[in-house]
């Protein structure tokens, strides 16, 4: 069976490497065809020889011939096995040929697809050619290079924009974290402030209590100071009433203790004088009473 001749239009769309691969596949397929034909001929000859030998073996068995004929039968059996192996090789060659035909069909399909792609893109090329004629570019390739540069610049701008957006997003996350930390710090400070306010109110309450006590102490001290002043004035008056002298030749006006001592001495002296006077009066009264009682008797 001869291989199908390839389409010349498809060969024009294949690359040199694909053409070499296709040529090798064709050569292998032709070799397989030749090998298959040879195998068929050898197989037919072996079949005929097998039939002849089988007949001879049967005759030898029937006639109980010598051992040499049985050896020939063994040789025939080996030849049969070799023939079967040859047929297996032929089948493998068939499978290989089928795979190669499939690959050739795939290559042809790829070639057709490339042709369709070229045909579809030819309109774009014509459009670019028209655009080039209306611009300052010398050719389509220069326009394509310019567009590629623009695309590259666009990609760089997008990447820079994405980097900026990522940086902004990162800064936003940091800001949220700082705000959260600030919020927690404010909560702690407000808690500390509340505790300090409570302690301050407690201290102010204690301060008011102590202030009241201090005012009372000052009031008491003032009263006592006034009382002491009054006592000093009374003591000074008593001292002067007892004939005490204040100033030069006497007691200092502020020396209340000395004044009191002299007043006490004056009182003691006065008491002694009164006691002596009362004692003398009692003695006189006793004498008078005695005289009266004696005269009466």
TrEMBL record:
InterPro entries: CFAP_domain-containing. The keyword Coiled coil applies. Keywords: Coiled coil. It comes from the Eukaryota. Residues 90-117 form a coiled coil. PANTHER family: COILED-COIL DOMAIN-CONTAINING PROTEIN 42 LIKE-2-LIKE, COILED-COIL DOMAIN-CONTAINING PROTEIN 42 LIKE-2-LIKE-RELATED. This is Uncharacterized protein. It comes from Knipowitschia caucasica (Caucasian dwarf goby).
